[in-house]
Structure formats: structure tokens, C-alpha cells
Design brief:
single chain; alpha+beta; 5-stranded mixed sheet
């Protein structure tokens, strides 16, 4: 009888833990879907109006129906994102990570490929010339090409239906030709959005919960310039026009 009672207590404890985890995930999901990355709240505001922060909002991290990155991140929704056929050559630490494609979520391709991506200045031709002489396997980051420091708080052009924000934009060349690549680890960064202005208990507690329950989503894809009409010949003619 005593042994059965012990088993019953253990089983009840496990059920309670599972229920608590489910409730916690749902609460976090509501917070994420209500605030996203766009607002900075003080802890006092959360305490004064908890019902606002724990109600479900409309932010999903994706501007198309059917995909809720918040829910995928928290394991509430099955991850049906398409896997990318490409992998980066200069980003370390993600060798064992599944990378998901951004191609289905391309919103503004001309913010990602073509001469306009290189800026509207007198040195655009220099940047374009560097890309044209790249060998197969070469890669250069957006910051390197634009002459920016790593510490510069530069947000690359917004091109996707997915909310990428500080993603890594690079340019490279492979057997298919010149491409732009985008990589992002989709998570709730400790230095952005709701956490960037909260350095105390609220921030620490929220980060610990998201780290415990959440699973970052890694996006990576390549977009070939020739697929959008920017062949090497077109780019050479364009460069000649700039220089003449």
C-alpha cells in the first residue's frame, strides 16, 4: 500500500510538472505574441497591468498566415518550415543546427540583390567591382563591403516576411554565380526589444524562462543575382556606364 502511495505521489508530481510546463509555455507565448520585439516596458508597468501582458496578441514573427514563429520557438506548434539547401561557409558554431529556408518568405528581393543594395553613393561602383572579381568560394560580409565596423549598430535592409531584424547579410560566389546570403538565429535577444531597457529582475527572469523553454530557429538562404536579371554581363555593362 505504501509503495503504491509513493508511486501515486510521484505520478501526481510528474503530471503537475507537465501541466505547469504547459501553462508556462502558454503564458510565455502570450507575452511574446503581445509584445514581440517592438516595445520596452518597465517592470512596474507589468505589475500594474498583468492582464495586458499575458493576453494573446497578434505578433507571430511572420507576416504570412500559417506560420507562427513564437509557437515554433516554444514548441507549441510543429516546425514545418522548409529546410534550406544551402549552408554558410564562414559562420561557425552552427554545424549541428538545422537551417531553414527564407526563399518562401521573400518580400522585397531587390533590397537583397542588385546594385541598389550597395548604396546610393559615388563608391557604389567600387563595391560592385569587388563583387565582380570574386572567385568561387569567396564570401564578404555586408559590413566589410560597406566599410562598417563590427560595433556599428547597422540593421541590414528588410527583405523578408519573417521578422529578422539584425540578420547577417553577406555576398559570395559559388558554382551558380554571385549571390546574397542571409543568416539569422531567430530568438528573443537579451539586447533587443522588451529586454533591452530592463536590466533587473524582470529581464533576468524572462531571459531564463525563454532560454529554458525556447529553441532558437536558424534561417539561412542564398539569393542569386542572375535569377533577378543581374547577370555578370549586365553588371559589367552597368559598371561601365557608371565609370564612363
Amino acid at each position: 500500500m505504501l509503495r503504491r502511495a509513493k508511486y501515486a505521489i510521484v505520478a501526481a508530481g510528474l503530471l503537475l510538472a507537465l501541466a505547469s510546463e504547459k501553462i508556462s509555455r502558454r503564458a510565455l507565448y502570450n507575452v511574446m505574441s503581445n509584445t514581440g520585439r517592438y516595445y520596452n516596458y518597465e517592470l512596474s508597468e507589468v505589475i500594474k497591468n498583468p492582464s495586458y501582458f499575458f493576453r494573446r496578441g497578434d505578433y507571430t514573427g511572420m507576416e504570412v498566415n500559417g506560420t507562427d514563429l513564437n509557437a515554433v520557438f516554444l514548441g507549441i506548434q510543429e516546425n514545418t518550415l522548409p529546410v534550406s539547401e544551402h549552408r554558410p561557409t564562414r559562420i561557425s558554431g552552427i554545424e549541428d543546427k538545422t537551417l531553414y529556408s527564407l526563399s518562401p518568405y521573400l518580400k522585397h528581393p531587390l533590397r537583397l540583390v542588385g546594385p541598389a543594395v550597395l548604396g546610393d553613393s559615388h563608391i557604389t561602383d567600387c563595391r560592385l567591382a569587388k563583387l565582380l572579381i570574386m572567385n568561387e568560394g569567396d564570401v564578404v560580409s555586408y559590413n566589410e563591403l560597406m566599410g562598417l565596423e563590427k560595433t556599428d549598430d547597422i540593421v541590414p535592409p528588410s527583405f523578408s516576411y519573417a521578422d529578422l531584424y539584425h540578420y547577417t547579410l553577406s555576398f559570395g560566389r559559388d558554382e551558380r554565380g554571385l549571390y546574397s546570403s542571409a543568416y539569422d538565429m531567430w530568438d528573443f535577444s537579451p539586447n533587443e526589444g522588451i529586454f533591452s531597457q530592463n536590466r533587473g529582475l524582470f529581464r533576468t527572469f524572462s531571459l531564463n524562462l525563454l532560454s529554458w523553454f525556447g529553441q532558437p530557429i536558424h534561417f539561412y538562404d542564398r539569393f542569386y543575382w542572375q535569377d533577378y536579371g543581374f547577370t555578370d554581363q549586365w553588371l559589367q555593362d552597368y559598371l561601365c556606364m557608371l565609370e564612363c
